[in-house]
């Protein structure tokens, strides 16, 4: 498939490339490391028994995460265009139907929708940086901290302000393009995020409960692991690496051909997992030191931890560092969610990069207002309430449900089937440049194991 390989280098001059493999790894890791690592992973681990869940999660990263990430980067690098066009080009070069690009369409639409409400949550993190820095958590009670979070959710004006601030930060970076925007941002934000995380972990070692946290995370108790816990691990492994959102296709379109897709995908998966585990080591000692519940759910970050930081030595300083860390994680993910959409707008319209970023970001910001209102003014509005499965679900809930449970797994499933069954094996071998045994392992995973695993998650989510 030499035609496929040579074609993938077209358009480089106009689009540019990542300046180095390290820049791509930082960007891809920045996309993968988000609220899912710092917010969701600790509490789902807590809900599902700790170490046994972590082991299953790591296995799922191997059988789902890495194979699909490699497939998405392959499509992006081979196509050298926005995700939808890249998918179409790869399909045509392999004599497959261009209809397979529906996978990229679903993924890009999912990224757009996710960013609309992700920006609202990113706004919460930005708001809490100020609260922590001003000492608003100091001496707080469960009631006062709960009232602070409840007051934020009840105020459309406050939520709109912070949603606007967060979206502006994202647009500002993406509008500056590959070198001046994406690369510069990740080369600053990602090292800063790691440093902040290590500082908070260092603080956690002083709580007297660090050993308990280590035991909780790394001593498997399989009696605490349920079938539901295994399925949650499967789903989270998929979500945490930013798969099914066309992001890795967009980032892959800027990747030089002398970079190994396989090695970089493994590196990104390792770095993402390390951050998730470090987040657990940062959070659980604080949770245990204050006699709090490890499986406290989403409120763990915005209600439980502020209470803990407010009643611990140097809690103001480390509470502030923690929420800056959370904001940075959300920011890097927000940038990656907007990039595929901006790529598409820039290529399909006459707008330059800045105009494309403003249009895409503005549309996303506008949709986010619906999520804001669903937290207060429209809290009783359940658009699909006539169906029992969606009774009481707000607009915010529905956007989250349909993207996470339907759109992402469906996009990932279609991508795995397409690359595994419709792309010429020789083309994959040439582009991935893996050792024969490693390629054989990946090829069997992407053809058989990965699609089955994603299909199980998909069906489970629909029936849950």
TrEMBL record:
Entries under PROSITE patterns matching the protein: NA_NEUROTRAN_SYMP_1, NA_NEUROTRAN_SYMP_3
Subcellular location, record wording: Membrane
Keywords: Membrane, Symport, Transmembrane, Transmembrane helix, Transport
Classification via Pfam families: SNF
Transmembrane segments: 21-39, 51-75, 102-126, 159-178, 185-205, 225-252, 264-288, 317-338, 350-378, 398-424, 445-463
Superkingdom of the organism of origin: Bacteria
Similarity field: Belongs to the sodium:neurotransmitter symporter (SNF) (TC 2.A.22) family.
Name of this protein: Transporter
